Amino acid sequence: MNESLVKECEQIVDSEFCEVQEQIKLLHEERKKLLDALRQLEMANLEAEASGIHDDVYQLRNHKYSSLGRGKYSECSTSASSDDKQEFEDISEEDEASFHDTKESFGEPDVGSVLTHFKRRTKLPDPAEKERGVSLWSMIKDNVGKDLTRVCLPVYFNEPISSLQKCFEDLEYSYLLDQAYEYGKSGKSLLRALNVAAFAVSGYASTEGRHCKPFNPLLGETYEADFPEKGIRFFSEKVSHHPTVIACHCEGKGWKFWGDTNLRSKFWGRSIQLEPVGILTLEFDDGEIFQWSKVTTTIYNILLGKLYCDHHGIMKIRGNRQYSCMLKFKEQSILDRNPHQVNGFVEDVTGKKAATVFGKWNDSLYYVAGDGINKASASLLWKATKAPPNVTRYNFTSFAMTLNELIPGLEEKLPPTDSRLRPDQRHLENGEYEKANEEKQRLERRQRMSRQIQESGWRPRWFEPQGESESYKYTGGYWEARDVKSWDDCPNIFGEFTEEVADCA
């Protein structure tokens, strides 16, 4: 081939390539216009579908709250109305979006050198016995449609923490509330509301891969968590057996967090649905209050396929001052390639959108100021910690591994009702499965007497009911009793018992 023919061929190829390149540019521009149009439509849908955020029952103002007691305030329902349950449209993904990490301003606060620090454990004890497999279907096939809190399962289906301790897992990222307090003090009310929203989402991160059931506490069982490195003290108690109600109270740097929950569960053959009933309240020292309820949790494929859990529904975070927040936990579909999505926004008392939030409940949450949705300018609110290297079948986070630990000097300070002293739970943690199962069956005999004990006049030791609202308030005094080891009125609920002892409890 001569040189002129080669050059002619090159020119033809270059010409064809230029035409294709121009067509690609045009398609790229059209795609950008389409995405912009979709974003505008999505935001319009978000605003329209969330119009229920202005319901009068939730419009809490300073002058209204000043005439209400805490008990009345906690009566406010935060469940979604039928209008709010319309589908939020998902915020579309953008390729290679560059997020701005605001770690410098959102970092965990220094709790001070005056606090006592010690090294908490990073792994569970090595199991003493080899675990045996048990068929879940053989245990629950006769309980379809029933409340699973009343179904007695072998210890093999439990994880070595109680529901009281699992409540404390919601406080793993308590530094978000410390930040929220500081932002409010400096007049940055929007950042306070955003950090509260991030905290409400962060409590779900530890549920990823957690397929075992926490122990159902005995009536009067308690749990304390004193974490000076976090600057928080937490306490919880099982205050009712029928219905099962757990109450908790936590104090941090400039804030208090409390609530009670009644978890209703149903088994539907292929899935288990958990409906939380109760209100969580967060109060800052300056009087600002936020309230919300948890969303529905469903565990899928309990018989066949890969077991997984999902959280779905609308969460309303009601503030009594300037801002409130609406979050949509998208229900995962069978072929969903982008699960665990959370989308929503913060708006002021006039209904004007102040910020858009988006992310995943098992990973992270971001926000964009104003009513825009440009992900390239998004800032990080919260990021989940990485999974620990010492993973067990329970898939505990590093934080969860510390919850049942008896650190040096702690046992002699605890009341005899503390979950750490529960023998079946301790045996399970140590991998002593036969002993754990024997103790679980023994304690469940006492559990079956709980309704009789409650109806005979039993009352919680550290919480009291608030009128007709069916909510409970911490009465105080636990930490003071702990300082002097005054546990005379705390029975040894994990010890040996007879039916006569139960009648006198």
Automatic annotation (TrEMBL):
Matching SUPFAM superfamilies: Oxysterol-binding protein-like
Q: Which PANTHER family match?
A: OXYSTEROL-BINDING PROTEIN-RELATED (PTHR10972), OXYSTEROL-BINDING PROTEIN-RELATED PROTEIN 2B (PTHR10972:SF88)
Give me the ranges of the annotated region Disordered. Answer: 78-110, 412-451
Protein name as it appears in the record: OSBP(Oxysterol binding protein)-related protein 2B
**One Pfam family named in its UniProt record:** Oxysterol_BP
Biased composition, class Basic and acidic residues, residue ranges: 97-106, 412-447
Segments forming a coiled coil: 24-51
Q: Name one GO molecular function term.
A: lipid binding
Q: Which GO terms describe its biological process?
A: lipid transport
The protein's UniProt keywords, in alphabetical order, are: Coiled coil, Lipid transport, Lipid-binding, Transport
What is stated as this protein's family in its record? Belongs to the OSBP family.
**Task of the protein:** May be involved in the transport of sterols.
Instruction: Give the Acidic residues compositional bias ranges.
Output: 86-96
